Amino acid sequence: MLVVVVVLFALCWLPLHAFMLVIDFHPELTNYKTTAQKRFFTALYYCVHWLAMSNSFVNPIIYGFLNDCFRVSCFIHV
To answer: What total of structural domains would you count in the chain?
Structure first.
């Protein structure tokens, strides 16, 4: 379970950190020539940010499916 949590954490947060590193090392990319470029970078940022924040949503699901004790205790109280 720990490996799954760590791998999903990396997959969720890596795109945001990669995006920020690219912007930090190539700030000229933020000199938008058209509004389409600005919309593209804004949409890309929102997508990778949403993916990073989705890690908080994924963790309880992982615990629910991979933790035997959790699954047994849930069905006992039903």
So the answer is: 1
**Rounded Cα gap, residues 17 and 52, in angstroms:** 9
CA distance 66 to 6: 14
Angle (deg, nearest 10), helices 55-66 and 35-53: 30
The residue segments making up the domain with residue 8 are: 2-76
Which pairs count as long-range contacts for 58-61, CB under 8 Å and 24+ apart, including other chains?
Answer: 58/8, 58/12, 59/5, 59/8
Which helix H or strand E contains 50, and what residues bound it?
A: helix 35-53
Question: Is this structure's pTM higher than 0.85?
Answer: no
Q: What pLDDT, in 10s, does the model give residues 53-71?
A: 999 999 888 888 887 776 6
- 1 and 67 Cβ atoms separated by less than 8 Å: yes
